[in-house]
Design a protein that fits this description.
Structural class: alpha+beta
Order of helices and strands: EHEEEHEHEEE
Mean pLDDT: 94
Oligomer: single chain
Number of helices: 3
Low-confidence stretches: none
Largest sheet: 8 strands, mixed
Distance between the termini: 23 Å
């Protein structure tokens, strides 16, 4: 069901400073940047081969990322797995005992379809299922 790792998300307080650090230290370039108002998050996707490092920061104090940063500080937030069918993957995970955060897939950045799985049902890891747009074949640069 998993086709590859879509991204590793890292929560940061200062998105521009993190982008600069990844550029200066590792030569990483921003492939996509977007604000997800619904989630209260701004993201920058840094290309790494066919995957990304996703830097995320809160755009408002009540967002899940703001709460994460307040509780745990900066660092690894979640792993995004690429799947061919987000709804089927979500259903299979729930049948296997996973606890969904999203009851159904929803729109994500880069025109993807996504769903989150709670860490309590997945060995302590917040999981994002990511289905790329079919018409474009890829949400990649």
């Amino acid at each position: 069901m998993l086709t590859e790792i879509d991204h590793i998300a890292i929560a940061v307080r200062d998105l521009d400073a993190a982008i600069d650090w990844y550029r200066d230290a590792l030569g990483a370039q921003v492939a996509h940047r977007e604000v997800a108002e619904h989630d209260g998050v701004e993201e920058a996707m840094l290309s790494v081969a066919e995957s990304y490092v996703q830097l995320i920061s809160a755009t408002r104090d009540d967002s899940p990322v703001a709460k994460f940063l307040d509780k745990r500080g900066e660092g690894l937030h979640h792993v995004g797995y690429r799947v061919p069918d987000c709804a089927a993957a979500l259903e299979a995970m729930v049948k296997a005992g996973a606890t969904p955060i999203d009851d159904a897939p929803r729109p994500g950045s880069r025109n993807t379809t996504i769903a989150f799985i709670h860490p309590k049902g997945s060995f302590g890891t917040l999981i994002e299922l990511v289905e790329e747009p079919e018409a474009e074949g890829s949400g990649r640069p």
